[in-house]
Design brief:
The chain is α/β, with parallel strands linked by helices. The chain folds into 2 domains: 274 residues, Crotonobetainyl-coa:carnitine coa-transferase, domain 1 (Rossmann fold); 77 residues, formyl-coa transferase, domain 3 (2-Layer Sandwich), CATH 3.30.1540. The strands form 3 sheets. The protein has a 6-stranded parallel β-sheet, with helices on both faces. Strands 7-8-9 form a 3-stranded antiparallel β-sheet, with helices on one face. A two-stranded antiparallel ribbon has the order 10-11. Strand 2, helix 2 and strand 3 form a beta-alpha-beta unit. The longest helix has 27 residues. It holds the Pfam family CoA_transf_3.
């Protein structure tokens, strides 16, 4: 698909073949597509199941508009020999292939790394799976929530010990999948850089061409000092609810209108500012709160005092007062606050995208922001197979008659 305005994305000229479904691999390729890569998304004739996740309009979720954006959507029946042949031909003309089947499934389809690298020695193949391509658990079933639980996140997002007997709280999005996709995108770009550097330098040995990302490991990688603290101190980090275990005051506090405001005033100067703002300058000299150590030890009393003030305030008024005092603070945003936030709007992080299926749709913007080559939303998520004929013609040179034959055979 040609971008009539030109494609300023920094990855323009890179071709990625996505054989992915649900969240992890498609999230990875969306990041690359946002920065200008040409992403060819291969779906079965019925389409990616995520198209129908959540509230739907005529069978399509609004999330698909963003999740599938900037991709060229084609259908291939990978259980059909001619469908596999087309996948091979596209892989031969791509820079990377990204997939999230169970380990070994791609090889069972006839698209193992040995086959793919024989066709295209420079192809980077990125595998995203629950537990990785090796190890005793490689064949276990997994989704993002499993990775979040095993990687330690579900434990730390729980209520503080002794405050609730409800199940451990889930992050409200598929964060395990998205983290794995993010690591895969990083790995793909690292492998491509290495490939191209070796080519420039005339290296004779083959460059790294395989990326292995596990959902469990992507989550664990984000767990800061959880593992070192246990290894050195035997310490098991516990969930702290809204607080930070090592600094105070930092928490979410209730307001008069039923909202929550996060206040992070855990340095000495910030605490003094906060104490003055809430009309309690005496707190600075209170032996219970003299330093951060004392404030953490007496956090219940401190947070109760701060909450007495926030409960007397409307949320917006409290946020404005805290901002004037230069204290880090914010309302806890819902989608409504996100959509109206002037900072997000000014940087294009919330933007309106015209979608033929939905009309105007709000999309999250592109991260990272690269001013000299910012990338853009070139088009929203497309209908199933909308680019099949065009892609097969442009990249593989197949004519309309051949595409019709492939459709009739069940390959597309």
């Amino acid at each position: 698909m040609t971008d009539v305005d030109g494609n300023p994305g920094i990855l323009s000229g890179l071709r990625i073949l996505e054989i992915g479904h649900f969240v992890a691999a498609p999230f990875c390729t969306r990041l690359l597509a946002d920065l200008g890569a040409e992403v060819i998304k291969v779906e079965p004739p019925a389409g990616d199941p995520v198209r129908s996740w959540g509230v739907q309009i005529d069978g399509v979720s609004p999330w698909w508009s963003m999740h599938g954006r900037n991709k060229r959507c084609i259908t291939l029946n990978l259980k059909h020999p001619e469908g596999i042949a087309i996948a091979k031909a596209l892989a031969a003309k791509s820079d990377a292939l990204i997939e999230n089947f169970r380990p070994g499934q791609l090889a069972k389809l006839g698209l193992g790394e040995d086959v793919l690298h024989a066709l295209n020695p420079g192809l980077v193949v990125a595998h995203i799976s629950g537990f990785g391509q090796t190890g005793p658990d490689r064949d276990r079933a997994a989704f993002g929530v499993i990775g979040e639980a095993i990687g330690g996140l579900r434990h730390l997002t729980d209520h503080a010990p002794g405050t609730s007997d409800l199940p451990p709280v889930r992050v409200g999005v598929s964060i395990g999948d998205s983290l794995a996709g993010l690591y895969a995108a990083f790995g793909v770009m690292a492998a491509l850089w290495n490939r191209d550097r070796r080519t420039r330098e005339g290296a004779s040995e083959a460059p790294p061409r395989s990326i292995d990302v596990a959902l469990t490991e992507a989550v664990l990688s984000m767990m800061e000092g959880v593992v070192p603290d246990y290894g050195v101190l035997g310490q098991v980090r516990q969930p702290t609810g809204s607080r930070i275990a090592t600094a105070a005051p930092t928490s979410a506090y209730p307001t008069r209108d039923g909202k929550w405001i996060v206040i992070a005033a855990n340095s000495q100067p910030l605490f003094a500012k906060l104490a003055a703002l809430i009309g309690r300058p005496d707190l600075v000299d209170d032996p219970r709160f003299l330093t951060n150590v004392e404030r953490v030890e007496n956090v219940e009393a401190l947070d109760a005092t701060i909450a007495d003030w926030t409960r007397s305030q409307e949320a917006n008024a409290a946020a404005e007062a805290l901002a004037r005092a230069d204290i880090p603070a914010t309302l806890v945003y819902t989608a409504a606050e996100i959509a109206g936030d002037p900072q997000f709007r000014s940087r294009g992080m919330v933007r309106e995208v015209e979608d033929p299926h939905f009309g105007k749709v709000l999309h999250a913007g592109i991260v990272p922001h690269i001013p000299q080559a910012p990338g853009k939303v070139r088009w929203p998520g497309q209908p199933v197979g909308s680019q099949t004929e065009t892609v097969l013609k442009e990249i593989l040179g197949l004519d309309a008659a051949r595409v019709s034959e492939l459709r009739a055979s069940g390959a597309l």
